[in-house]
Design brief:
Structural class: mainly alpha
Strand content: under 5%
CATH class of one domain: Mainly Alpha
CATH topology of one domain: Arc Repressor Mutant, subunit A
Shape: elongated
Distance between the termini: 46 Å
Number of strands: 0
């Protein structure tokens, strides 16, 4: 099954409204049960259309870099060389 997550979320909500257990929905959509639970909880709080809009927009936001600044790395290495017996990073 190769569908967009927004389609899977909509299908998940429809199956849930029909009274199908979350574990069966998870098996059917090949998603983790916790994922199904989070989707349903979000839809119950926000409504389907708003949840789908928020879901799509969350994927587009700019992400913070995980890399440490080169100057900070250099500073840490200088301290390590100077304090060579220090075991802490």
């Amino acid at each position: 099954m190769d569908m967009k997550n927004t389609t899977l979320i909509t299908l998940c909500w429809e199956l849930y409204q029909e009274g199908i257990p979350k574990s069966k929905i998870a098996l059917r959509l090949q998603k983790n049960r916790e994922t199904i639970h989070l989707w349903i909880k979000g839809i119950e709080e926000q409504g389907l259309l708003e949840y789908l809009d928020n879901y799509e927009n969350a994927k587009k936001s700019e992400r913070k870099s995980r890399q440490t600044d080169a100057l900070v790395k250099r500073y840490v290495w200088d301290i390590r060389e100077r304090e060579y017996q220090c075991a802490q990073k």
